[in-house]
Amino acid sequence: MNDYVSRVEAELDLVVDPCSAGIGMPVGLVSMGLIKKLTLKDSPEGIDVHILLRLTSPCCMMAPSFATQAEERLTAMQGIRSVEVEIDPAIDWVPSMMRQSYRDTLSQPAFMRGIQSL
What CATH number is given to the structural domain containing 57? Predict the structure, then answer.
């Protein structure tokens, strides 16, 4: 099951937050810290996935798009029977929820990204 969790997270990270793309630093739902809870339940017919999705702001208009993209990507995966995305009504996201590797890139000037130390 851990293999499926990793695969599901990788697929969810392909759903890019457009605000991050707008600043030239695209990041997916998992790395952005928008997946509040991910539950996978195994059954003989396949795996049922439930996602509790958090938003960064009450003004975020992307919730339906995030949910649709997540459902489409995950239902296309072999072995996944169903996907349910629930939008968390609590607006509790803070920047520290982003993966450290992504936060580290935010502090670098654009021309330095991808350059190893000399």
Answer: 3.30.300.130
Quick: pLDDT tens for 60-99.
999 999 999 999 999 999 999 999 999 999 999 999 999 9
Overall pTM surpassing 0.90 (yes/no) = no
- Structural domain harbouring 68: 2-112
| DSSP per-residue codes, 40-95 | EEEETTEEEEEEEE--S-TT---HHHHHHHHHHHHHTSTTEEEEEEEE-S-----G
What is the Cα 9 distance to its own chain's centre?
A: 7
* Nearby residues of 27 by Cβ (< 8 Å), 6 or more positions away: 13, 16, 17, 20, 98, 102
Q: What is the pLDDT of residues 23-74, one digit of tens each?
A: 888 999 999 999 999 999 999 999 999 999 999 999 999 999 999 999 999 9
Domains: count for the chain: 1
Q: What is the C-alpha to C-alpha distance for residues 104 and 5, in angstroms, rounded to an integer?
A: 25
